[in-house]
Each structure stands twice: as C-alpha cells, then as structure tokens.
Amino acid sequence: MSASIQVKGTRNGTPPPSGMIVPSHGGGLLKPIQPGEARNPGGKGGLWQETQRIARQKSPEAARRLTELIDSTDERVALLAADKLLTWAWGKPPEHDPRADRPPTQIDTSVLTPEECKLLLAILRRGLIKEAEPTPTDTPPVQIDGTAE
User: Fold this and answer.
1) Alpha helices in 1-127 (DSSP H)
2) For residue 145, how many other CB atoms are within 10 A of its CB?
3) Mind listing the pLDDT tens digit for each residue in 25-34?
4) 3-state secondary structure of 124
5) What is the pTM of this model?
6) Cβ-based neighbours of 39, under 8 Å, separated by 6 or more
7) Where along the chain do its domains lie?
8) Which of 90, 121, 87 is closest to 107 using CA atoms?
9) What burial letters (b/e) apply to 35-69, b meaning 16+ CB within 10 Å?
10) Is 93 within 8 Å of 83 (Cβ atoms)?
11) What is the pLDDT of residues 74-130, one digit of tens each?
C-alpha cells in the first residue's frame, strides 16, 4: 500500500517545477537566488523611481517658486520658504553637542602626595572615572571639599 503525500504548493503531490523548492514549512514554492543573480538591483520599485524622476524634473521650478515666496508679506510663508531653500542649498545644520562647549578636564597632579597619586592611578585603572553627562544649566554644580585618603 503506497501513500501519496500532498505538499502544500504542489498540485496532487507532483514534484515542484525545475529550479523551485518547497520551503520547510511546506507552503508555497520558492526559487532560490543563484550566485551573481540580482532580483532587484535598484533596491526600489518602479513607481518610486518614476516619482523621483518627476520630482527631480520639477526641482528647478520649485526652487524658483520658493525664492519668490521669500518675499511674501506673510512672515510664516517667508520663513518656511527661506528654511527650505537653506536646507536644500547647504544641508541640514549639525546637531549641537553641549559637551563640545566645555573645556577639557585637567588634573594637576603636582599638588598630590605620592600616596594620593597611587590612589588616583588605582582609580583610573579600575575604570571608575567616566565622562560626566552634561548638567542642566539651571542646576548649580555640586562642589565637594576634602582630600583623598
């Protein structure tokens, strides 16, 4: 008695067509990508490329219109037009890093005793000193008085 196995994706238990495989879950058919084959070399669909082509053709006209809108009597329109033109011309401005404004931290070890130097070196080697997060400007910095023991 021979049993016929029905595999999802094939008809009446027939083997898959040449070059096709049945996935491990048993549903559907797959065509593996062959070495050197590219299924979508552009990475984007045809509609996206068409839309991009149309937008690029209209870019000079859009830039001319924005330059006209800069002279608008409505300040909101003028501001948005100027902002868009500057972004297109020069790119988005970089984000501000508040840590870049602070001077680098310096440690004057000439005032430390040899024991304090050894303690500081041990702390640095253990990795306990890390760069501090910027503190909000409305909070005064905390000052600690004392000496290392």
Assistant:
1) 46-69, 75-90, 114-126
2) 4
3) 877 888 888 8
4) helix
5) 0.38
6) 33
7) 46-90
8) 121
9) eeeeeeeeeeeeeeeeeeeeeeeeeeeeeeebeeb
10) no
11) 999 999 999 999 998 999 888 888 777 878 778 788 898 999 888 888 888 887 666
